[in-house]
Automatic annotation (TrEMBL):
Enzyme class label: hydrolase
Reactions mediated catalytically: alpha,alpha-trehalose 6-phosphate + H2O = alpha,alpha-trehalose + phosphate
Protein known as: Trehalose 6-phosphate phosphatase
InterPro entries: HAD-like_sf, HAD_sf, OTSB-like, Trehalose_PPase
The organism of origin for this protein: Nocardioides jiangsuensis
Obligatory cofactor(s): Mg(2+)
Domain of life according to the entry: Bacteria
Amino acid sequence: MDFRTAEGRQRYDALVADAAKTVVGLDFDGVLSPIVDDPTQASIHPDGPEVLVELADQVRGIAVITGRPARQAITLGSLDEVGVTIAERGHELFLLGQYGNERWSSGTRRVVSPRPPRGLGSFMSELPQMLRRHDAADAFVEEKGLAVAVHTRRLPDPRAAYDRLLPVLTDAASRFGLGVEPGRLVIEVRAPGMHKGQALRTIHDELGAHGVIFAGDDLGDIEAFRAVGELRDEGAPALLICSGSEEQKALVELSDIVVDGPAGVLALLRQFARDAAAVHAPAD
Ligand SMILES: O=P(O)(O)OC[C@H]1O[C@H](O[C@H]2O[C@H](CO)[C@@H](O)[C@H](O)[C@H]2O)[C@H](O)[C@@H](O)[C@@H]1O
């Protein structure tokens, strides 16, 4: 394991020693699920289900914290099945969807979701015209119930289209009392307020945890990175993992360790679970 600093290694060791008090927060796209061109075709990495079950045995709790609608992430991540296995072993898996606005757990198996924000319907009725006017009529529009995401990945020049649309959609969103969440070749328009940091902090406190690991890959994860920084300042052991990619480097400098995409994240979490199990195994 190549930690960026000596402190990173110490943080990992402190969390291994105290794994039973640790909450693990995981982003979905780019962290548990490899990035693909078509968002509807994403799915959890093949190692994901097994690693989540192994990890759940060692830690206080696992929360998948995603921009995806909760029901969609449950399907793409096979999280219902994973949650059943985790529950059979006496633990609970949490899923906080739409940046923490929606909540599901393997205990309740129900999604709790607020109403869509005011202004979203009006924004969406103007959206096709805005896309046409800015040479992005073929952008993929993902309707998320509480939000809408405009994807440029499959346009001829994805980065140029993204750069063209970002100021336009930001301006239009603010006219309707909405905010933008920029991401990997996606611009999402949603209600301002809730973010992944608040979601992670809430689950950490609810579970009475003292220690946190968070893995992210994109701009929408920065608030969770901030929340981890605050918990660290309050004395909790904390580790930040960047799921590295050529496409997004914003989290590298903020992280304790950079790994190679979802496969790297899952290998690290598997190692963590095994190291924690070894520490707590009864001596012969
Ligand atoms: O918070 P996350 O779990 O990372 O979700 C963020 C957005 O992810 C999805 O888009 C991203 O993944 C797609 C599939 O790999 C990819 O095609 C797209 O370019 C990425 O931006 C998802 O479609 C969005 O709704 C999420 O908000």
